[in-house]
Predict the structure of Polyamine aminopropyltransferase.
Amino acid sequence: MEEMELKPGRHMLFMEWYSRDPGGLFMKVNRWLYSAQSPYQRIDIFESPFYGRVFALDGITMTTEIDEFMYHEMLVHVPMFMHPNPKKVLVIGGGDGGSVREVLKHPSVEKVVMCEIDEMVVRAAMEYLPYTASKLNDPRVELVFEDGSKFVRQFKNEFDVIIIDSTDPTAGQGGHLFTLEFYKACNEALKEDGILCAQTEGMTYDWEWGSTAYKRIKANFPLVKMYLGFMPTYPGGLWSYTYASKAGWDPIKDFNPEKVRNFKEPLRYYNEEIHKAAFALPNFVKKYIED
């Protein structure tokens, strides 16, 4: 689909219906930038007068300019600040580039491997999402276009941090990144002091997937904790992430807030208080992951 700009006063409407059909997300569109069908999924990028540039896969919102920093900062900086010296990082998924952007804010990082199955997603992001994808051309970044669940199996004791920035398990190829076998392979690919962090879905509408992912990660790591963050344009607005340490580093007891206070790069959501508070779970979430 070619780029299309609507006449003043006219707009289209983008509608995303949530999985349990309780409602959805509806956005005005004043400019359609890109649409394509890749071998894996439909890709759409458009401009909204309020949300800015919006990126969607198979009709599901992945990022918007107004709030993507909330998701990417919480997914990335919790594990990155917990590792004493992260040099080599693997990002699985994350084709929009936001996670890579945040990883490279840490000066210790020497190499980031981003494994994204859909090359068309990455190329579209680089053209139409210039801020989110701003670091994908960085010389420290290696782009790999493969199935992440298979790619990670070839490594043993290789990475300091692995970040799983997957799509929903019910969309496209995302389900391969939620299996017990995949998390086991991630454990083996990490160094002995390695840390994994995965997005594990919303705990309002899709708690079964969040609970299942948490339990499968817990079966493969000695210390695992779920934490939460706000993400307004994701279903329910309350998103979960799961932190796992191969060496047993506790994200509260072993956290050094001075590292965050002395950080030179700009952060709009994450800070030392948010880091600690995010691990305080509501009772209903505790019940979901404990039952």
User: Anything to note?
Assistant: The two ends are 47 Å apart (CA to CA). The first strand starts at residue 4 and ends at 5. The mean pLDDT is 93.
